[in-house]
Amino acid sequence: MKKLFFANVNFAASDEELRELFETIGPVKRCNIIKTDGRSRGYGFVEYADELDASRAIDDLNGQTFMGRKLLVQEGKK
User: Is the pTM of this model over 0.85?
Assistant: First the structure.
């Protein structure tokens, strides 16, 4: 399993919308936007079971515009 960090997410984006985006690469185990008091912090984490899918997600989605903002997608810290 490989965890990725994503940031610069539009505050209006939902967990489900991000999951759908990341699932264009491959099956997602978990995807969540970090929230404080129910409000998005603009970043979160996604987990792929397949490390190849995770690498492709970084290559394909990092810098891609999603809901008007350029995403940052990188390997998550352990």
Answer: yes
